[in-house]
Amino acid sequence: MVRVVASADLRRFTGGLEAFDVEADTVRRLVKALEARFPGLGDYVDRRMAIAIDGEIHQDAWTSPLRPDSEVYFIPKIGGG
What we know:
Blueprint: E1 2-5, H1 11-14, E2 19-22, H2 27-37, H3 41-48, E3 49-53, E4 56-58, E5 71-76
Parallel strand pairs: 1-5
Antiparallel strand pairs: 1-2, 3-4, 3-5
Helix pairs in contact: 2-3
């Protein structure tokens, strides 16, 4: 199971849960599982969040593999111009 740590802005979707486990082997599957478990969260993550997998930040991580012991953090995307 992948360990997901939810930042404060995501906890409105999780009912206040700060961390939880999700079964997924890619980020795409993780986001789909989040949407199924917490409606609205997957879409929010897809549009607004970057993903840190085991301490490495990814902007576009859809196909990134996840290990069963991975730890995933969602952080706001940084925009620029």
